[in-house]
Design goal:
Low-confidence stretches: none
Structural class: mainly alpha
Order of helices and strands: HHHHH
Oligomer: single chain
Shape: elongated
Largest sheet: none
Number of strands: 0
Length: 91
């Protein structure tokens, strides 16, 4: 059975002292993804930009959250880690 109270306490413990950092990185990813969405009105170019920018950025954000959960160090350049795994991210 899912223990909501336990998982909530674990999440709070992991996010202690990292709220602002994670919020800042999320804002950067959202802003960069929004730029790619500006081109969505152009049929082919919008899709290509979305695939090559928004997908790796979303992967980067997922990797940051995973690192935070595993108590690993997170750097500002972590926002770009999804681009190094672009092939896997694309698949």
């Amino acid at each position: 059975m899912f223990d909501r109270i336990r998982y909530k306490a674990l999440a709070k413990e992991r996010l202690t002292h990292h709220w602002s950092y994670l919020a800042g990185l999320t804002l950067i990813v959202l802003l960069l993804s929004s730029v790619s969405m500006l081109f969505s009105w152009i049929p082919l170019i919008g899709i290509i930009i979305s695939i090559f920018i928004a997908a790796p950025l979303s992967m980067s954000l997922n990797m940051i959250v995973k690192k935070l959960f595993l108590k690993e160090d997170i750097a500002v350049n972590s926002v770009l880690e999804g681009f190094s795994l672009f092939g896997k991210t694309l698949l």
